[in-house]
Design goal:
The structure holds 2 protein chains of 2 kinds. Chain A is mainly alpha-helical. Chain A is built from 24 helices and 4 strands. By secondary structure, chain B is mainly α. In chain B, helix 11 packs antiparallel against helix 14. Classes of the chains: A mainly alpha, B mainly alpha.
């Protein structure tokens, strides 16, 4: 038990931060100013979670006994990476929020508790080793975020956004639960290990149910990452939510959802490559990816509100990332036919979430006096009057557009590199469509910098939200975008290591008897065992003249 | 078709020495960082810093030149470090006779641009200094990189400062122009990125140009990949019909932006063809030669005709760039030693003369805030020194003998006629199609020289001579000392290359020879197989003798 708890230290720190905030907040003196303290406090706790995860990574602990609570949670290289990333997102959100929320008239302590809870949910989601844990953590995250979206309760837009997100999100949860029920029915277990074992040896007559289970599960994740055709909620939710919450959603939810999606795809559903699922999952995912990125980019082109534009851009990025999920390589431990994802998706997520956080933090500085000055025209003059926020916003846009030497460029490079490495450049057309999409996206990202720097300043004086912790959030994100953009080697390595460890030790042990060069034969043997002898061979082939 | 020719000229020499080229590339960035830390309300400090930074860079480039061995055609002074070990990307930089002239052009023009910007840029000097220095780093990095990933990164880095320079200090339609410039260029380069990554997959984990050039690719792969790379470079040059961004960008850009854009950025397109696209896919170059030749010729004539009908002096000079770069493209497509030497020299010449023209147009614009030809006339009476410089640079631009333009164009046409006529006379019955194309093309291209004289001289006549029609022009004052000095430096270079071109040709001679050695046969194999056989049979004894000498 103690060992189990020790393995979940980063998660416990996040949970404690949220609970502590919630319990102590009512006893603080009245007045909003004292609530600002919760921002730095929760940020420090998130930082502590990152440190804990980093120490566990360093200790090599994760390489041996990795699962806790009866194989329902893990602290593998994979989950530690994603836990650090979502904690980073949480930390940045805490740092950029206090003054902004106060200006918006909702500077309550519960806000920070909710962000911590959501971060805890995300961290648990990416550590999940069973469908039960996955579902519960997804709900913890979602519930907290529904509240956060509707947090500006005086604003109709915010409440409407929260309501929409809640209803649509419930449908997604239902889909996920339904899919999981099928998976349980097929495998008789709830952990990923059991599911994968069962699916590897699935019989052909189970194909229909397996396909249904996979489709339902995928649909739920496609909803969470706002992929077309499940993207309708995103623009309203992004626009209506307080800006810092939008940044948190855009980065955190995407990181968590992709972390869990890769996990369930590779560690549970499609261990032996996508094509082994009696369902063309790779084809489905890559097609959805193309449609998603194209629709997202085209709709982003015509948006006048930067938050709404970034919502569509987030949809487009979900498309890029989905294409990355099909770029698999051979499991370095188990060997063929077991597949693991490449490092591109985790690495891309670092760049994407940092750029989103930097961008939304800069936009949060426009939220003075309860206003939301986020249409393009209201950005005019930002580069002159608040140069730091203008520069950070522009850098974030360039990174999202993938212009070197920002991190966003290397994210896209890695993604393209791995997508092209699949099967002798099988996805070349997809890669070309991806870069054409990037060209389209450059237009609307650059338009933001046009308004920031090149349009004449408005006559009216405008005040901006400034505070040290917001400046820190912007500065840290911008520095990371540039620093990792110049020397991306280390981050690529870490991301690749983590992606390759998508299966935990127990999963590997469970599958190890199926490894080796004759693994495909063995798998086929197991799969075919209860069946009758193969059908009589087809008619003799025509005589082939022997040389 | 399967024969590949070893690209010996891409061998790295001098690895492990002092990282001079990395230093050269990083220097402007260091000064940009200093500028970033200084407060923005002291334009004088930033002016001085920008000038000092570009002068220091120029001096270091002189060191590079002094340590450069003109006798050796291979890559020299190479730096080679691990950069992103996880994906096998290396930081590889080297210089040869192809890149050195352009590197020197870049470091020579940048300080001049800072001096020229002194009065042309009237606001936000801090941002301007940073943008211009980052741009210089981008240009130098693209020219020196021999690793495709490093090249691509610098190639894209150039976009952002240029985007800002046009967008922040440009004219009325600057936002349209700058977005068009950025997106058009990015479109081309992203397809090239896909090509780079495809080749990366083929090499099994390297971005090195040498390994890319040593790959065995099928004909179909070569064609598509050449297409992807060439598109990026042709847009940059720009070759007709990809030129539409250029007149807009030039017209709207502030003078310093136009000078750098015409002076260096456009050359990176032709440089990219020579450095990357052709050595990696010579057979595809053979296939595309007739098409590229036609585009080059169309560009020459079309650019000249468009220039003739312009009413705005700057737009006229912009279209003249389209025409002049057509000549460079012609030399590249022909790909024999004379034509290539001419093309390399003409890149530098065009940088000097068009850079000077843009500066001169800028001086006039600062005085009158108009560039319409109709608004001037007879101003030689009020600005005699200015008129003298303008006429001199015009002579260089229309390639009058004893100016630099003449040397370059003469070499290009000499090489082209050799390709068409010389071999046709020897064996008139073979290879008719390609030779006819060359001869017809070159004949049409020659008319471009005449057209060039027509549009430039008619503009000069309308602006400088005749009676002063407008009362505003009576009060024009002549060049200041700063402007005179600036123009003198450029005029000296123009005359120097024109009078004694030997030293400048020497820089690129060995490299061009080493470059033609493997690539010309590979191109000829596809373009005109009989010429290939003839040249091989003629070369064989010579090569044997050379090898014997080497032993």
């Amino acid at each position: 038990m103690l060992h189990d708890l020790a393995l979940t230290t980063p998660l416990l720190i996040l949970l404690f931060a949220g609970l502590f905030t919630l319990v102590v907040d009512p006893f603080l003196p009245a007045g909003d100013q004292s609530r600002r303290f919760w921002g730095p406090f929760n940020a420090a706790m998130s930082a502590a979670a990152i440190v804990a995860a980093a120490l566990m990574w360093k200790s090599g602990h994760h390489e041996m006994q990795t699962v806790a609570f009866g194989a329902h949670l893990s602290a593998s290289t994979y989950s530690l990476f994603f836990v650090s990333l979502v904690s980073l997102v949480g930390m940045m959100t805490h740092l950029s929020s206090p003054k902004y929320m106060l200006e918006q008239g909702v500077g309550y302590g519960e806000y920070f508790a909710m962000v911590s809870f959501a971060t805890f949910g995300m961290a648990t989601m990416v550590s999940a080793e069973s469908v039960i844990t996955l579902f519960i953590s997804l709900e913890i995250m979602s519930m907290a975020i529904y509240v956060l979206v509707a947090f500006k309760r005086t604003s109709i837009a915010s409440v409407e956004a929260g309501m929409k997100y809640f209803i649509m999100g419930s449908v997604a949860s239902a889909l996920l639960l339904y899919g999981m029920a099928f998976l349980y029915g097929l495998s008789g277990g709830t952990t990923f290990v059991e599911i994968q074992r069962a699916l590897v040896t699935a019989k052909p007559d189970q194909a229909v149910w397996l396909g249904l289970a996979v489709l339902l599960t995928l649909a739920a994740f496609l909803f969470k990452v706002a992929a077309v055709p499940f993207h309708m909620w995103a623009p309203d939710a992004y626009e209506g939510a307080p800006t810092t919450v939008t940044g948190f959603m855009a980065s955190g939810v995407k990181v968590a959802a992709f972390g869990a999606l890769l996990k369930i795809l590779y560690a549970a559903l499609a261990g032996q490559g996508m094509d082994d699922l009696h369902l063309p999952v790779a084809a489905i995912l890559s097609t959805v990816a193309l449609v998603t990125m194209t629709v997202g980019n085209l709709l982003a082109l015509v948006q006048k509100n930067v938050k709404r534009m970034l919502a569509y851009s987030a949809i487009a990025h979900a498309g890029y990332l989905l294409l990355g999920t099909v770029a698999s390589t051979v499991d370095p431990v188990l060997g063929a036919p077991y597949a693991v994802p490449g490092g591109a998706v985790p690495f891309y997520l670092i760049g994407y979430s940092l750029a989103s956080l930097a961008g939304f933090a800069a936009l949060a500085s426009l939220g003075k006096n309860g206003e939301e000055l986020t249409t393009e025209h209201q950005l005019a003059g930002l580069g002159r009057r608040y140069p730091f926020a203008g520069a950070v916003l522009s850098l974030a846009m360039l990174s999202l557009a993938g212009v070197p030497p920002t991190l966003g460029f290397f994210g896209k490079l890695e993604l393209l590199r791995e997508v092209l490495a699949v099967d002798n450049a099988k996805y070349l057309p997809h890669a070309i469509i991806l870069v054409l999409n990037s060209v389209v996206s450059a237009y609307y990202y650059l338009r933001v910098t046009v308004y920031v720097y090149m349009r004449p300043e408005p006559k009216v004086e405008r005040e901006y939200v400034t505070e040290p912790s917001l400046t820190w959030a912007m500065g840290l994100a911008a520095a990371a975008i540039l620093a990792i953009g110049v020397m991306p080697g280390k981050a690529i390595n870490v991301a690749t290591l983590s992606a390759h460890a998508v299966r935990t030790g127990i999963a590997t042990k469970n599958l190890v008897h199926l490894r080796g060069p004759d693994a495909p034969a063995k798998v086929a043997e197991v799969a075919a065992a209860p069946q009758e002898a193969p059908a009589a061979p087809v008619a003799e082939p025509a005589v082939i003249p022997q040389p | 078709m399967e024969t590949t020719f070893a690209q010996a000229w891409l061998e790295l020499n001098g690895v492990g020495g002092f990282p001079l080229l990395t230093l050269l590339t990083a220097l402007p960035l260091v000064f940009a960082a200093i500028s970033l830390m200084l407060p923005g309300d002291q334009p004088g400090a930033h002016k001085a810093l920008g000038f000092a930074g570009s002068i220091v860079t120029f001096l270091v480039s002189m060191v590079v030149w002094s340590r450069f061995d003109t006798g050796l055609g291979h890559m020299q002074l190479a730096d080679d470090f691990a950069w992103i070990p996880g994906i096998g990307a290396r930081w590889t930089m080297a210089v040869d006779g192809l890149s050195l002239p352009l590197v020197l052009l870049t470091t020579f023009l940048t300080p001049l641009v800072f001096v020229g910007a002194w009065s042309a840029i009237d606001k936000r000097w801090k941002e301007f200094t940073i943008a211009m220095l980052v741009l210089e780093t981008g240009m130098l990095g693209s020219l020196l990189a021999v690793d495709l990933l490093v090249f691509y990164v610098f190639w894209e880095i150039m976009l952002v400062p240029m985007y800002l320079i046009i967008g922040l200090w440009g004219g009325k339609a600057r936002i349209y122009a700058t977005l068009k410039f950025f997106i058009y260029t990015m479109f081309g380069s992203l397809l090239m990125l896909v090509g780079i990554l495809y080749l990366y997959g083929k090499t099994g984990g390297s971005f090195s140009l040498r390994e890319f050039a040593a790959l065995h690719l099928t004909d179909k792969e070569q064609l598509w990949l050449f297409g992807a790379f060439a598109l990026a470079f042709l847009i940059k040059v720009p070759v007709f019909p990809f030129h539409t961004w250029l007149p807009d960008a030039h017209t709207e850009a502030p003078t310093p932006g136009s000078v750098i854009l015409a002076g260096v950025l456009l050359k990176l397109g032709t440089y990219g063809l020579l450095r990357f696209a052709i050595p990696m896919f010579p057979a595809a170059m053979g296939t595309f030669s007739p098409l590229l030749l036609s585009l080059a010729v169309i560009g020459i004539v079309f650019g000249a005709m468009m220039a003739y009908v312009q009413t705005d002096v700057k737009r006229l000079v912009a279209y003249s760039s389209v025409s002049h770069l057509g000549f460079v493209m012609l030399g590249i497509v022909i790909y024999n030693e004379e034509a290539l030497q001419g093309a390399v020299l003409q890149m530098v010449n065009h940088g000097l003369s068009t850079g000077a023209l843009f500066l001169l147009v800028g001086f006039l614009y600062e005085r009158r805030h108009t560039r319409e030809i109709a608004d001037f006339g007879g101003i030689a009476k009020r600005m005699p020194v200015y008129a003298a410089f303008f006429v001199f640079v015009t002579m260089s631009s229309i390639a009058l003998p004893l100016t630099n333009g003449f040397v370059g164009e003469f070499l290009i046409f000499g090489g082209s006629f050799k390709e068409g006529i010389h071999s046709a006379m020897l064996q008139p019955e073979t290879g008719i199609a390609w030779r006819t194309t060359v001869l017809v093309g070159v004949s049409i291209a020659t008319s471009g020289i005449v057209l060039g004289a027509i549009y430039m001289l008619s503009m000069v006549r309308r602006v400088f001579f005749g009676a002063i029609g407008k009362p505003e022009n009576e009060a024009l004052h002549d060049l200041t000392l700063r402007e005179k000095l600036l123009m003198s430096v450029l005029a000296v270079m123009i005359a120097w290359i024109g009078l004694v071109p030997g030293g400048f040709l020497k820089v690129s001679e060995a490299t061009v020879h080493a470059m033609v050695q493997p690539n010309r046969p590979a191109i000829l194999q596809v373009r005109s197989p009989l010429d290939y056989q003839r040249e091989q049979s003629r070369r064989a004894p010579a090569q044997a003798a050379e090898e014997a000498k080497a032993e």
